[in-house]
Amino acid sequence: MGTPAFAVATLSKLLEHNYNVVGVITAPDKPAGRGQKLQQSEVKKFALQNGLTVLQPKNLKAEDFLHILKTLRPNLQIVVAFRMLPKAVWELPEYGTFNLHASLLPQYRGAAPINWAIINGETKTGVTTFFIDEHIDTGEIIMSEETPIAPDETAGSLHDKLMHLGSRLVIKTVAQIEKGPVHTKTQPKIDHPKTAYKLTRDNCKLDFNASVHTLYNKIRGLSPYPAAWCTLLNNNEQLDIKIYSAQKIILKHNHPSGYLLIEKNSIKVATKEGLLELLEIQLPGKRKMDTKSLLNGYTFYPEAKLR
Question: Is the pLDDT of residue 33 over 80?
């Protein structure tokens, strides 16, 4: 059970190891792009290419879906980047239903663990397999594996790293369930666990009153998707722009937060504890471009700033 590319790596690994995948459950096709044509999920595309049975229920509690699922007679269900399952679904197989989550649980339960680990400046993360229960990401842990987060890691590069690490961990987990017995452990209780909140327009906005370290982490934690954004005030224009890449410069200065220092081939913005040099920017309705290309075709007026 899965939808995005992150889940494809696991499905591919299962087939590679000759496991009998009796069915693939994924999200219904959704309209996307300018023409609003129906788009298949990455998991569906891969499943069809490999001749697998695909189910796309809108309602996971619907009797007709539950009937079809039972006729497939699954003895184990594996969930990767899907949605919350009703009890009637996750308790169905003989060996249960387990989930692959892209964090070291119990930290970063929720929708966007890869992004928030980087945004919060973590130096390590990992993947965890656990048996699903009634709550979100709280079940008994089967296995976990950690990996370092590089100082310049982006959400995109960490996504790919965890995608492959996770697919290998799923194979180890399935092998352990197959061999038995499975020794699980209860997730430890933590006073103030870090949460992987769903990404929204509000929590993707940059606040230039924050430190240069905080801003740098937020930009790379949201790159390439959905991308950090802010508002450019330039003469009489107010533009919401996206920032995909930057580097931090630690130094003392007297500029107000958000003030832009424009040079021939560089754009720097004043922050607490230093400057942030912007490397890749996207103006509304334009393609993403490097700073030099932007400066060749766009005029910054004196007193331009970001907020």
Answer: no
